[in-house]
Amino acid sequence: MTDKLVVAGKTYGSRLLVGTGKYKDFKETRAAIDASGAEIVTVAIRRTNIGQNAGEPSLLDYLPPEEFTYLPNTAGCYSADDAVRTLRLARELLDGHKLVKLEVLGDPKTLYPNVVETIAAAKVLIKDGFDVMVYTSDDPIVAKELEDIGCCAVMPLASLIGSGMGILSPWNLQIIIENAKVPVLVDAGVGTASDAAIAMELGCAGILMNTAIAEAKDPVLMASAMKKGVEAGREAFLAGRMAKKFYTASPSSPTTGMID
Predict the structure, then answer these.
(1) Percent helix / strand / coil, the chain, rounded to 5
(2) pLDDT digits 0-9 by tens, 202-232
């Protein structure tokens, strides 16, 4: 697509960001990423080896950093301190890498974001020179505060992480998009390609997903479907849909000049 995504001053051709967890092995991970067309891949530093475990297979061997933009994330962190410590480790492992995804979770059952700890961590990371893409709730006030702090992208959930429930509150999401001056990307809850298309039709700048692809019966085929869903949704948003007209019929063919 000629319509590009810009995050922290860098341009990307794909608006689909894909996680690297939950696949059966790194080989399947690579195949799914290739099918998705994603240029940004997110990696959970606490769960995936990117060099911290010497002698074990490394994701870096299958997804070389010169081919993809890595987005280290803080999955599994439940406090601001843990999140900050994890991303500082990622910066060391990836030779000074600045672009990160911050998420601070509230509890292990719902994985709902703890916005108080998220805000606290964001302030520290931004002061420390990171470019922070931040996972948050779909609260428009919280989203705006995270933008004002200096986050380079705001990433509200569509529904709970790994739920596949799709967009539960499109109205909140639209408020966030309308008020934001930074990219808004849906993060969490997308289950299938139609969910992705709907999110993009609302005006999202992009989508980050993992479970919807990795836990599909055919992850590689689903990755391809998600790529198409994101592109179709973005094009529909740019095209501008027709107005909804309740109880008003409008024939597809012109009626002028009809033969009686």
Answers:
(1) 35, 15, 45
(2) 999 999 999 999 999 999 999 999 999 999 9
Residue 40 has φ and ψ, to the nearest 5°, of -105, 125
Sheet architecture: strand order including 206-209:
153-156, 131-136, 99-102, 69-73, 40-44, 16-19, 206-209, 185-187
Eight-class DSSP state of 98: -
Kindly list the catalytic residues. 101
pLDDT digits (tens, 9 = 90+) for 2-26: 789 999 999 999 999 999 988 888 8
- CA-CA distance, 157 to 169, in Å (whole number)? 10
Task: State which amino acid sits at residue 15.
Answer: R
Task: Say how many C-beta atoms besides its own lie within 10 A of residue 134's C-beta.
Answer: 30
Residues, the chain, total? 260
CB 109 within 8 A of CB 89: no
What stretches of 92-130 adopt beta strand conformation (E)? 99-102
Cβ neighbours of residue 47 under 8 Å, at least 6 residues apart? Answer: 21, 75, 76
Phi and psi angles of residue 7, each rounded to the nearest 5 degrees, phi first: -130, 125
pLDDT of residue 252: 66
Cβ neighbour number for residue 65 with a 10 Å cutoff:
14
Give 178's Cβ-side CA count (13 Å radius). Answer: 8
Residue 173, judged by CB atoms within 10 A of its CB (0-12, 13-18, 19+), counts as: buried
Q: Find out whether 222 and 190 touch, Cβ atoms under 8 Å.
A: no
In this predicted model, what pLDDT tens digit does every residue of 74-131 receive, in sequence order? 988 999 999 999 999 889 888 888 999 999 999 999 999 999 999 999 999 999 999 9
